[in-house]
Amino acid sequence: MLFTEDFLHYVWKFRLFDRINLRTTADEELEVYSVGLHNSHAGPDFQNARIRIGETTWAGNAELHLSSSDWQRHGHTSDNAYDNVILHVVYRDDEPLFRTDGRKVPTLELKDRISPDLYNRYHNLVFGNQTIIPCEASIATVDGLTMQNWLTRILVERLEKRSEAVIAALAVNRGDWEETFYQFLSANFGFKTNALPFELMAKSLPQSILAKNKNNPMQIEALIFGQAGFLKDDLQDEYPRSLKKEYDYLSKKYSLQPVENHLWKFLRMRPQNFPTIRLAQFAALVIQSNHLFSKVLEVRDVKGLRDLFTDIKINEYWETHYRFDKESKPAGKSLGHASIDTILLNTVVLFLFSYGRHLQLQHFVSRALKLLENIPAEQNNITADFANLGVNINTAFESQALLELKNTYCDYKKCLQCGVGIKILKPC
C-alpha cells in the first residue's frame, strides 16, 4: 500500500479501523477509550489518550508510525519526551520497541484493520489523475453545510495569516492605525502590479507631512508624484512643471528622497490602470479624506464604505492625459466599481478584522466577515475552476475562502487536514 503517515493519523483520529478484539503485538487485550488530541507541534502525535491494556487503564500519549522501526529512526529511543507514550500505533510491526529505561512500548498494528475501500478512496483522492484539485470528481457531492462550515474556518485562517503583516507594520508605526492603514491602502492602489512602489512611496511620505499641506491640493499632488519619482525629468506641460516646482521646494523642506521611477510598470496595462492615474486617484483621496481609517470604523454598511472611495475628483489634467506630456482623448478617470470593491476586499476587510482581533473587539471581526458577504465574488482562474467543478460562488466570502483552500490545501494535497477531503473519505 502507498500512503503517508498522515493517512495513519487520519485513520486513528476518526477511529476508522476495525476495533473488534483489539490486541497489542504482545497479545494483550486492548481497548481504546479515547484516541487523544492531535498534536501538530513537537512531541508525541496524540496527547491525553486513554486506553486499557489487560486489567490496567492508562492515560498518556500515543505515537504513530508507518513501521515500528521508525521509532528508533526518529530518535525516540533516547528522547525522554516519549517515555509517557502509552501506545505505539503502527501500520506494520517490524521490531520491538523499548523506552529509555528499557521497558517495552505497547504496540498496536493496524495492517489488517484498515478496510481496502477506505484505502482505495484515499489513494484515488491523493494520488489519482487530477488536473485542478485532488477531489475534483467529488467536491460537487459535498453537502452545503459541510462546505460552508469549512469555508468559514479557512477564511478566518486566511485573514488571521494576513493580519500578521498588519500587526507587524503597526508595531513599526508605534501603534498608529491611521498610518498603517494609509500604507496598506497605498500598496493596494497598486493592484498587485505596482503594489511595491506604491508601498515604498507611502512609507517615504508619512501622513504627518501630508497633513501639514492638507489645505493645498497642488502640494499634496506634488508630494505624491514627486515621491513616486515622476517629477525628475524635464517636463513640458504647465501642470507637471508646477508640480515639479512645488516638489523641489517641499522635498528640501522635509528632506525627502523619492523612490526609483524604474520600479513602476506600464507594460501590458490598460491606460486606466497606469500608475500615474492610480497616483492621481490616490492623491485625490488624500485631499478629500481626513482620518480615513476612523471613518472606516464608523461606517457600518457596504454602501457607506463604497461611498468613501466614490466620486473622487482627480485633477482635471488627467481627463485628457494618461501620462505627463502625452495628451489623449477625454475620458473619465474615477475609480470604477470593481476597483473600489478590490480596495474594500484587500484593505478595509483586512483592517476591520485585524483591528477587532488585535483589540479583542469581536464586532469588528464580524463586520469584516459580513462585508465579504456583501461584495461580489472575484473573477479569476481559481474561482472559474471551482465553478466548473460545480461549486457555487456568489460572494467574496466564498471566493476568498476558495483561494485559501486551493493555495494552502489543494496544491499541497492536504486532503486529510481538509474538511472537504475528510467528508469525501468518511464511510457513508
Automatic annotation (TrEMBL):
Pfam assignment, any one: DUF2851
Domain of life: Bacteria
Protein name: DUF2851 family protein
